[in-house]
Design goal:
CATH architecture of the largest domain: 3-Layer(aba) Sandwich
Number of strands: 10
CATH class of the largest domain: Alpha Beta
Structural class: alpha/beta
Strand order of the largest sheet: 6-7-8-3-9-10
Number of domains: 2
CATH superfamily of the largest domain: P-loop containing nucleotide triphosphate hydrolases
CATH topology of the largest domain: Rossmann fold
Order of helices and strands: EEEHEEHEHHHEHEHEEHH
Oligomer: single chain
Distance between the termini: 30 Å
Length: 268
Amino acid sequence: MTDIMQVKGLTFKNEKKKHWFAQPEIFQLGPIELNVKRGETIAIIGENRSGKSLLAKLLVGAVEANSGEIVLNNNVYDARFNKKASRNSRTSDIRMIFQHSNESMNPALTVGRILDEPLRLNTGSDEATRKAIISDNLVKVGLLREHYYFYQHMLSDGQQQRVALARSIMLQPKVLVADEPFAALDPTIRSQTVNLILKLQQEMGLAFVFISHNLGIVRHIADKLIVMQDGNIVEAGKTETLFRWPQHEVTKKLILAYQSLVPQQTLR
């Protein structure tokens, strides 16, 4: 598999002053070096305030980096996006899946209008073409074409999550990034969503980068595991290798905590 995304020298520094006389609270991330292959699933884990969510936001351009570049589908983007166009030009190649699908949907808009927005803002397609694309993607995520006319209150939690997924693939991205995409779902819907993402990966060749505290899901779907601490990657490798032979103390702590919650016979 070839690299679909390369992250080079990505850094971020933030200083926060709580009040006038206090020392500033400084958090520094990176430099981060990261390669993602086409169709690969990468999980990012770590303790709280390790920089996982910040890294996800930097990748999709929701937060501006201090330095670094991101290569997406052989296109090089400055992660600082000093010019707005630098951020907007990569929106079709990398998209975000929101954790709380119900909070990311405008209840006053139909599903069709919600899904139309990324197409209307990022493509030159006419209304009929956009509607056909939306209908096809609704079917692709397991919904009906008729859901185009539904409002949020007419959808179950699982259906809302599928709408969020449909929105994330509307521009035919190469990489999906998600911060705790399964945390707000009940076990049944979570299992359905995981299987749907795996299906879409196979069909579309998507790479999936996700942050999760659920190491059971991580072990099940991730090809590669990245462990973060204090804004840095402290260990990375194949998922099963790190689960069986963790080297860094943080990795050992996280794996041990997971294993203590799993019946021992399932670990053999």
